[in-house]
Amino acid sequence: MGFLKDLFFGNDTESEESNMSEELKNEGALITTDMLVGDIISKHPLASQFLMECGMGCIHCPASQMESLAEACAVHGIDGDEIVDALNDYLIEHNA
Fold it and tell me: 56 near 72, Cβ under 8 Å?
């Protein structure tokens, strides 16, 4: 019976993941440009790889940890607002 119930109504795990994703979307942005890079990485470890793929290869250097995301983007010639939008979408998609 459990298999059929899961097949037709979904299982609790899928429901919880969906609810978490909806909660994150309803709360608004997870990341803003005024947040420190170090804080972003601490709260959302997946953000590290994402930012490196966007051209911020030195994301783990000590100086970058105390920069705001806007400052880090400016140093690398990247549009901070564009990065924030894409990063928030990425984190919501990955429930991070």
Answer: yes
How far is it, in rounded angstroms, from Cα 16 to Cα 60?
32
How many other C-beta atoms can be found within 10 angstroms of the C-beta atom of residue 31? 20
Contact (CB, 8 A) for 66 and 39: no
How confident is the prediction along the chain (96 residues), in pLDDT tens digits per residue? 454 445 445 565 444 444 444 554 445 568 999 999 999 999 999 999 999 999 988 888 888 889 999 999 999 999 999 999 999 999 999 987
Please tell me the pTM assigned to this model: 0.68
Give first-to-last CA distance, the chain, whole Å.
Answer: 33
SS3 68: strand
Amino acid letter at 75?
V
Amino acid letter at 80? G
- CA torsion sign for 44, 50, 52, 55 is negative
